[in-house]
Amino acid sequence: MAQFKKYGCFRMYRKGIIEKAEVYYQSGDLARALQLWVAVVREAIPPAVRSDILQKAISAAYCMASIKDYIWCCVQLMPSQPLAEDGFRAVLHSTVPPPPFAASEVSAAQ
Question: Which residue ranges does the record assign to the Trafficking protein particle complex subunit domain (predicted)?
Answer without folding.
Answer: 1-78
